[in-house]
Design brief:
By secondary structure, the protein is an all-alpha fold. It has one domain. The protein contains five helices and no strands. Helix 3 packs antiparallel against helix 4. The two termini are 27 Å apart. The mean pLDDT is 94.
């Protein structure tokens, strides 16, 4: 492994990444509103945003259940003790991050903060290069055979 501690050494904790992105988006929206200002979302945006948030919460819950059953840690700064391949992890290697992006996008719609959707590609790039790729290196080093088999069976995203 290329780091001293038994964790992935991610650049930023994913929930903080999206929380920071949302804070920045809301601040910019307050200064330069694009769709009528914060907290002024049209009905369609409220419906889609609420659906995205609810789906994200359900997916996150399923992910936490899978991690708990496997007996491993969820936070990226804690050691991984197992490769989780059940539940949502049977169709994506990163369902928590898919859920976080859906939650973030849904909140942007609910808050009427389109700047958040505009900066989402930047957040995704930070997530991919600062988190996912580091986790992949860590897991490949810690569980060489098991992680390689898992990667051969399950896609990174969808």
């Amino acid at each position: 492994m290329t780091h001293n501690k038994d964790n992935a050494g991610v650049a930023v904790h994913p929930p903080l990444l999206f929380l920071g992105g949302l804070a920045i988006a809301c601040a910019v929206e307050g200064v330069a509103p694009l769709w009528g200002g914060l907290l002024n979302a049209p009905t369609q945006a409220l419906i889609i945003g609420a659906a995205a948030v609810l789906c994200a919460i359900a997916l996150l819950a399923a992910c936490f259940v899978s991690f708990t059953r496997a007996g491993t840690n969820v936070p990226t700064n804690r050691p991984s003790t197992a490769i989780v391949s059940s539940g949502p992890y049977s169709f994506s290697r990163n369902p928590i991050y898919i859920a976080l992006m859906a939650f973030y996008g849904g909140l942007c719609l609910l808050l009427n903060a389109p700047w958040g959707l505009i900066v989402l590609p930047v957040l995704f790039a930070v997530l991919l290069f600062g988190v996912v790729q580091r986790e992949e290196v860590y897991l490949a080093a810690k569980f060489p055979r098991e992680y390689a088999d898992y990667c051969a069976r399950v896609r990174r995203w969808l």
